[in-house]
């Protein structure tokens, strides 16, 4: 499961935006590692630098120095819709009769195909196959005969799907969150301006203060001189569809998303896991790093209930095995878990163990870890997962897996347990997730664990045999 894109925008009173944008992108690096980019505007023209690779590799000091202007937007990308090349790297930048536009997008449109055909029929020429360019063209045509707020409102009525956007129209920076609020976006204040970002950790990195989340269906327009902002509620939907996986997995634990510190949310999910599926064992241990906050909440709740479980680090992570690590054969791939995670024998040997993680996608790592703990002498290995079984793909911009790759799709919990080889397996229920997030169940997207999505997805209801139906039209 890969996280999908981080966006940021800043407007400052009297200093270049490039360096703060660069720092903010560093803070959002976990949301995308494929490409990084910044666009600034100096009041006369746009300046752009977009490269493939990590933030630290994509910019050098000269690149930053050439990005003039005190207003700008930035993006880190993991590709969702569109090909993996520089044509789809963002921010997307283009000039129209209505002015220059820059767009940073986190999410995935479900009607991009139909909209692209319509715009192409009207003479719009596309340079990429990504859905962000579709939003840019739609906004540009609306800006021809409408003011900025009306044009954005018209685009919001046209594009359907998941989007949190940092947009720059000439030197004006905007933030826009889709009517269901599927992806996060927040607003912060700096000493000399304002910032919009996917996560509050990016505001912290600039020594700023989080003001609040951008509301679903809200447009924020920053003053280009860094003196303030306007808010426009363009829609006010009855229900939202916030991605619950932001709290479970994607967002940084030190970010506050939709009013809730992610670390605390994960601890509460761990407490819920104990309440629903607790089992007394000698040791409770996390899968590092993803299961740590869940395991801490779980162990705390177990001990409050009169237990005497030990919370211990039983698996050590090798932080130097990166995404580029190449394993030449299937056999070596299966052994690779030992390169990434190695057990501490004294924590495990002869003990009953509860191993805690945030989620199971394909089940490969879980299976290998359970086998590893048995191999080093664990008496029993019980697996507890801080989310419900993932049974369906995500169409809102998360690279989950196809249905036939998901271990829980079409299986009972007991059947999954058998495949993984654990002594017992317990997941967290959707109701407990909603409780832990202090949110009504109807205000969360849980498409990947229920198969019910907040948008119509062609093929989803009608043809369950298709492993990855085409999005939209
Ligand atoms: S389907 Fe799952 S991963 Fe995708 S937006 Fe909904 S909750 Fe998040």
Automatic annotation (TrEMBL):
One of its GO terms (biological process) is purine nucleobase biosynthetic process. This is Amidophosphoribosyltransferase. Keywords: 4Fe-4S, Glutamine amidotransferase, Glycosyltransferase, Iron, Iron-sulfur, Magnesium, Metal-binding, Purine biosynthesis, Transferase. Pathway: Purine metabolism; IMP biosynthesis via de novo pathway; N(1)-(5-phospho-D-ribosyl)glycinamide from 5-phospho-alpha-D-ribose 1-diphosphate: step 1/2. One of its GO terms (molecular function) is 4 iron, 4 sulfur cluster binding. The active site is at residue 5. The keyword Aminoacyl-tRNA synthetase does not apply. Binds 1 [4Fe-4S] cluster per subunit. It comes from Halococcus morrhuae DSM 1307. PROSITE patterns: GATASE_TYPE_2. InterPro entries: GATase_2_dom, Ntn_hydrolases_N, PRTase-like, PRTase_dom, PurF, PurF_N. Catalyzes the formation of phosphoribosylamine from phosphoribosylpyrophosphate (PRPP) and glutamine. It catalyses: 5-phospho-beta-D-ribosylamine + L-glutamate + diphosphate = 5-phospho-alpha-D-ribose 1-diphosphate + L-glutamine + H2O. In the C-terminal section; belongs to the purine/pyrimidine phosphoribosyltransferase family. Residues 5-225 form the Glutamine amidotransferase type-2 domain.
């Amino acid at each position: 499961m890969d996280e999908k894109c981080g966006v940021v925008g800043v407007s400052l009173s009297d200093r270049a935006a490039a360096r703060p944008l660069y720092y903010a992108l560093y803070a959002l690096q976990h949301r995308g590692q494929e490409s990084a980019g910044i666009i600034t505007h100096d009041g006369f023209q746009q300046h752009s630098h977009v490269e493939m690779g990590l933030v630290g590799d994509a910019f050098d000091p000269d690149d930053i120095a050439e990005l003039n202007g005190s207003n700008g937007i930035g993006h880190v990308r993991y590709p969702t819709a569109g090909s993996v090349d520089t044509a789809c790297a963002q921010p997307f930048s283009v000039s129209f009769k209505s002015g220059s536009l820059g767009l940073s997008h986190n999410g995935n449109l479900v009607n991009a195909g139909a909209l692209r055909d319509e715009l192409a029929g009207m003479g719009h020429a596309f340079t990429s196959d990504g859905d962000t360019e579709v939003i840019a063209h739609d906004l540009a045509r609306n800006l021809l005969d409408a003011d900025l707020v009306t044009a954005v409102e018209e685009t919001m009525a046209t594009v359907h799907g998941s989007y949190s956007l940092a947009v720059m129209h000439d030197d004006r920076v905007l933030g826009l969150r889709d009517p269901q609020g599927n992806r996060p976006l927040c607003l912060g204040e700096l000493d000399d301006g304002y910032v919009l970002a996917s996560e509050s950790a990016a505001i912290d990195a600039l020594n700023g203060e989080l003001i609040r989340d951008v509301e679903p269906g809200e447009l924020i327009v920053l003053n280009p001189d860094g003196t303030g902002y306007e808010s426009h509620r363009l829609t006010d939907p009855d229900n939202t569809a916030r991605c619950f996986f932001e709290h479970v997995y994607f967002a940084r634990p030190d970010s506050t998303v939709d009013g809730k510190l992610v670390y605390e949310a994960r601890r509460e999910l761990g407490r819920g896991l104990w309440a629903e599926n607790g089992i007394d064992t000698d040791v409770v241990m996390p899968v590092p790093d993803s299961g740590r906050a869940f395991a801490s909440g779980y162990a705390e709740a177990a001990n409050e209930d009169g237990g005497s479980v030990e919370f211990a680090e039983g698996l050590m992570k090798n932080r130097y095995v990166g995404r580029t690590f190449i394993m030449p054969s299937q056999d070596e791939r299966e052994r690779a878990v030992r390169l990434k995670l190695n057990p501490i024998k004294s924590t495990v040997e002869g003990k009953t163990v509860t191993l805690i993680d945030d989620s199971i996608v394909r089940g490969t790592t879980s299976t290998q870890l359970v086998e590893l703990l048995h191999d080093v002498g664990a008496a029993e290995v019980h697996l507890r997962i801080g989310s419900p079984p993932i049974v369906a793909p995500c169409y809102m911009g998360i690279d989950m897996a196809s249905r036939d790759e998901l271990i829980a799709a079409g299986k009972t919990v007991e059947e999954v347990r058998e495949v993984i080889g654990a002594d017992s397996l317990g997941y967290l229920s959707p109701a407990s997730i909603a409780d832990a997030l202090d949110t009504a169940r109807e205000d969360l997207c849980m498409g990947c664990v229920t198969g019910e999505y907040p948008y119509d997805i062609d093929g989803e209801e009608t043809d369950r045999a298709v492993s990855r139906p085409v999005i939209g039209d």
